């Protein structure tokens, strides 16, 4: 059963086709990597999947049901949790309360959300900074915190946009370990990353985009040696 | 177990209650009608400042019309009392309801948008409401204002009515902000797109915050109308909104204690400087600019930094 | 009847040209920094006083008051940028989430400051500026205009055209447009983005002050005289699509004409309320403004 599916999704900005007829689906329990050179349309695609942008054409299906007029709020309540490339934490609120907010907003009671937030902040090794305002955390800690916010309730799918970019290796390992454990327990992921070693390690399946189109979609090892994928990367930039 | 946020709110509530207890004790020493009047007006502003702080300080929505909603509340009450001699038991809730409903409708229109639309629309709304009320001589008696019968002649009684309203507001805001609603409002303030992505219904809660803030302004206006037994468009002057903003920023925005401290401080200073002549607003405006530029959290923030240092 | 309508149309367009002169400055600032300057009306007020006092106190001829108003407005605008706007782009990434509120509070406080400062220094009484020309009435086809209105309109229109040409074709104008589109990109391309902001604020102040000077002989000047022109400009900026110069010029003329007809055919007392009604209708139906386009978010 597909948890999330895109059919012919297209989006242009001015004359530029940022996403051009993209179709793919993610099954329950899958962990899919999404790669592609800069400007290939990955973030735009994520923005459409999470309701932050409306597609010009095509449709998004959740659990096989077409979603019309998807907004960030409806996506979030429908179990699509996302992490932003540029961190969006609640800067003037203590770190722990960032998590509590995410829990309450998805229907948990305040007490339950606080208890869950404490567990999660331990697991992410942020307990030391739990009472600091999120704006005072380091960049990497903020990313980890936002990452945590996605998992306050059990999301159907977590869309992670460059979770590992500009994050200290220790914190990257905390995040990767978290992803591994959740994936083993059946959590579904779609992860955008430039970090090939991590993608190879985590994702069994990878989608490569270039110039707004899906260039390759399949087993990670095969996608990474696909001549077209290598061409797209070397043609655009050496990665 | 209390969160850091809840502890912070608790200490702010406590500080503001200490201040209000002192205010409650003032009439033991001061029986001068003039100064009691000054303190009553300070409490009127404390209600406006508390309401505006909920909206601007905690929800991040900078309305430029708190005084306008006080004016609307006062007219809601005043028109019923003046034209139809309706009982205060009905006019008081009616006045608050008018401010609330107008606030809700305006918020419903503007809150779907982000950015400076709210400030722009509320400012235009504020000036134009004043013109409309000022020009509707037949119904509102224009700039002359409406005189309505007062409810009590005892100034001391009014003093405690206003005080009770401020105390009730403080407890109400505390209960609201320490609940999940407080978290939603602050999340919207800090990052609206982020809040929606976490599942917060941003349009709903922004509208709710605006409505509640308008209701508080309305309450202030209604009480003031009966206290002064005069309802005039002057209540809605932009200058009054300017004073409210000065009070919140000087006292300390986004805290429960700040606006109340600011209201007393600013209004008492303003009255004391009246003899010197008109410089107080220049000083306040400069202070607000300096605070926004360099401190952000005003006197309360300054006090907290000093208080917290030896504790660690 | 027809001649009344032509008269209303002409007067509406004339008011619209003053509105445009005000609104362009506000639009420029919004286009550059995505903030609204709530002290814009006080730039107008400063210009009105500069024009009037130059003639009454310094004994300058009336026409010399206009460059004085322009220069004083430019100075106030430039000072505003220097002292208050820098935090918006100094560390503007970290200020990001608080940018709007900082700008609203600081400019609103500046407006309060300027009004009360002028009230204290010059006094609260109304003053009327000297006229630019003595000619009482000039028939222009079926429309009768006072000499002052005619000449002020001509100056307003020429200034608007000159400003539009300046932004479109001059080197400074191109740099400003580059900064408005992408501040970081422009700075990487070697454009002095801070200077561009200074120019915009100076220009914005100068244009508002000039319209204050032009209207000083028609409308009594008091310390709070700027609030109405400012509110009209806010409405216009939203109508015109937040940051579009042609949009705000068109919106100014539309608002001027609507008010002129509305004052006669609907209600004179409520003529100033039409703007709000239009504003609310536009926000409901077309929030990107009459002439704006939807932007990209996230």
Biggest interchain interface, per-side counts: B-C, 44 and 44 residues
- Strand arrangement, major sheet of chain C: 1-2
Question: How would the global form of chain A be characterised?
Answer: globular
Q: What fraction of the residues of chain A are assigned to beta strands by DSSP?
A: 25-35%
| Number of β-strand runs of chain C | 2
Return the average pLDDT of chain A rounded to an integer.
Answer: 92
Helix content class of chain A? 25-40%
The assigned structural class of chain A equals alpha/beta
Helix content of chain C: over 70%
Rg of chain A is 18 Å
Structural account:
The complex is a heterotrimer of chains A (239), B (312) and C (298). Chain A has nine helices and ten strands. With 239 residues, chain A is an alpha/beta fold. Chain A has a six-stranded mixed β-sheet with strand order 6-7-8-3-9-10, with helices on both faces. Chain A has a four-stranded antiparallel β-sheet with strand order 2-1-4-5, with helices on one face. Chain A is globular. By secondary structure, chain B is mainly alpha-helical. Chain B has one domain (2-237). Chain B contains 14 helices and two strands; from the N terminus they run ααααααβααααβαααα. Chain B is globular, with a radius of gyration of 19 Å. Chain B starts with a helix and ends with a helix. Chain C is mainly alpha-helical. Chain C has a domain at 20-226. In chain C, 71% of the residues lie in helices and 3% in strands. Chain C has twelve helices and two strands. Chain C has helices spanning 2-33, 40-56, 65-90, 92-95, 99-121, 147-169, 171-181, 183-188, 193-215, 227-239, 245-265, 274-285; strands at residues 137-140, 143-146. Chain C has a two-stranded antiparallel sheet with strand order 1-2. In chain C, a hairpin with a 2-residue loop joins β1 (137-140) and β2 (143-146). The longest helix of chain C is centred in the N-terminal third of the chain and has 32 residues, at 2-33. Classes of the chains: A alpha/beta (239), B mainly alpha (312), C mainly alpha (298). Chains in contact: A-B, A-C, B-C. Chain B binds chain C through residues 56, 60, 62, 64, 109-110, 112-113, 115-117, 119-121, 123-125, 127-128, 131-132, 135-136, 190-191, 193, 238-239, 242, 245-246, 249, 277-279, 281-282, 284-286, 288-289, 292-293, and chain C through 30, 34-36, 38, 84, 87, 97, 100-106, 108-110, 112-113, 116-117, 119-120, 227-228, 231, 234-235, 237-238, 269-270, 272-273, 275-276, 279-280, 283-284, 287, 297-298.
């Amino acid at each position: 059963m597909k948890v999330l599916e895109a059919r012919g999704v297209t989006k242009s900005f001015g004359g530029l086709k940022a996403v051009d007829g993209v179709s793919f689906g993610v099954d329950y329990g899958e962990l899919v990597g999404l790669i592609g050179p800069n400007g290939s349309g990955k973030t735009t695609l994520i923005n459409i999947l999470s309701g932050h942008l409306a597609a010009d054409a095509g449709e998004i299906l959740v659990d096989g049901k077409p979603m019309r007029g998807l907004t960030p709020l409806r996506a979030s309540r429908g179990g699509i949790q996302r992490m932003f490339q540029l961190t969006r934490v609640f800067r003037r609120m203590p770190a722990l309360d960032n998590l509590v907010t995410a829990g309450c907003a998805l229907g948990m009671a305040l007490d339950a959300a606080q208890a869950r937030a404490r567990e999660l902040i331990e697991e992410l090794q942020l307990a030391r900074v739990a009472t600091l305002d999120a704006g005072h955390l380091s960049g990497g800690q903020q990313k980890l915190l936002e990452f945590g916010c996605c998992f306050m309730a059990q999301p159907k799918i977590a869309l992670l946009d460059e979770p590992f970019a500009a994050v200290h290796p220790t914190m990257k390992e905390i995040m990767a370990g978290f992803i591994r454990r959740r994936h083993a327990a059946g959590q579904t992921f779609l992860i955008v990353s430039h970090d090939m070693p991590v993608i190879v390690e985590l994702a069994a399946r990878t989608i490569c985009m270039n110039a707004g189109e899906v260039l390759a979609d399949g087993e990670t090892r095969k996608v990474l040696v696909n001549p077209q994928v290598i061409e797209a990367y070397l043609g655009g930039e050496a990665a | 177990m209390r969160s850091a946020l809840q502890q912070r709110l608790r200490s702010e509530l406590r500080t503001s209650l200490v201040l209000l207890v002192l205010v409650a004790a003032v009439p033991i020493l001061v029986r001068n009608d003039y100064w009691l009047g000054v303190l009553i007006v300070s409490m009127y502003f404390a209600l406006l400042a508390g309401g505006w702080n909920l909206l601007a300080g905690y929800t991040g929505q900078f309305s430029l019309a708190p005084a306008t909603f006080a004016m609307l509340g006062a007219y809601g009450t005043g028109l019923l009392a003046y034209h139809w001699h309706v009982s205060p038991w009905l006019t008081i809730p009616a006045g608050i309801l008018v401010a609330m409903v107008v606030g809700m409708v305006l918020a419903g229109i503007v809150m779907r948008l982000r950015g400076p639309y709210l400030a722009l629309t509320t400012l235009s709304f504020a000036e134009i409401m004043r013109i409309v009320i000022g020009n509707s001589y037949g119904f509102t008696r224009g700039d002359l204002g409406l005189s309505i019968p007062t409810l009590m002649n005892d100034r001391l009684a009014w003093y405690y009515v206003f005080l009770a309203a401020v105390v009730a507001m403080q407890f109400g805001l505390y209960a609201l902000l320490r609940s999940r609603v407080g978290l939603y409002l602050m999340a919207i303030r800090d990052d609206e797109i982020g809040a929606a992505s976490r599942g917060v219904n941003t349009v709903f809660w922004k509208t709710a915050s605006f409505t509640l803030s308008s209701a508080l302004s309305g309450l202030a206006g209604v009480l003031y109308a009966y206290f002064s037994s005069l309802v005039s468009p002057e209540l809605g002057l932009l200058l009054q909104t300017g004073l409210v903003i000065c009070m919140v920023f000087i006292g300390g925005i986004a805290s429960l204690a700040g606006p109340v401290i600011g209201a007393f401080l600013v209004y008492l200073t303003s009255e004391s400087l009246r003899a010197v002549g008109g410089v107080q607003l220049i000083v306040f405006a400069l202070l607000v600019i300096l605070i926004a530029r360099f401190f952000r959290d005003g006197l309360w923030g300054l006090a907290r930094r000093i208080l917290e240092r030896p504790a660690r | 009847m027809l001649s009344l309508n032509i008269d209303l149309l002409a007067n509406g367009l004339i008011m619209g040209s003053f509105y445009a002169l005000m609104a362009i400055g506000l639009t420029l600032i919004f286009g550059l920094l995505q903030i609204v300057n709530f002290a814009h009306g006080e730039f107008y007020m400063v210009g009105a006083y500069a024009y009037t006092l130059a003639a009454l106190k310094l004994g300058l001829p009336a026409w010399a008051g206009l460059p004085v108003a322009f220069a004083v407005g430019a100075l106030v605008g430039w000072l505003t940028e220097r002292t208050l706007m820098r935090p918006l782009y100094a560390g503007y990434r970290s200020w990001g989430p608080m940018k709007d509120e900082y700008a609203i509070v600081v400019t609103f406080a500046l407006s309060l400051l300027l009004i009360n400062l002028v009230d204290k220094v010059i006094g609260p009484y109304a003053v009327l500026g000297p006229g630019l020309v003595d000619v009482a009435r000039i028939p222009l086809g079926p429309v009768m205009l006072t000499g002052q209105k005619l000449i002020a309109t001509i100056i307003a229109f020429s200034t608007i055209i000159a400003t539009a040409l300046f932004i479109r074709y001059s080197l400074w104008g191109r740099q400003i447009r580059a900064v408005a589109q992408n501040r970081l990109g422009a700075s990487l391309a070697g454009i002095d983005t801070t200077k561009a902001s200074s120019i915009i604020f100076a220009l914005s102040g100068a244009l508002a002050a000039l319209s204050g000077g032009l209207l000083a002989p028609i409308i009594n000047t008091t310390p709070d005289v700027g609030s109405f022109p400012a509110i009209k400009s806010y409405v216009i900026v939203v109508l015109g699509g937040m940051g579009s110069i042609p949009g705000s010029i068109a919106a100014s003329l539309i608002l001027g004409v609507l008010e002129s007809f509305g004052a006669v055919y609907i209600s004179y007392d409520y003529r100033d309320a039409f703007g709000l009604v239009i504003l609310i209708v536009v926000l409901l139906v077309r929030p990107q403004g009459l002439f704006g386009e939807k932007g990209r978010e996230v």
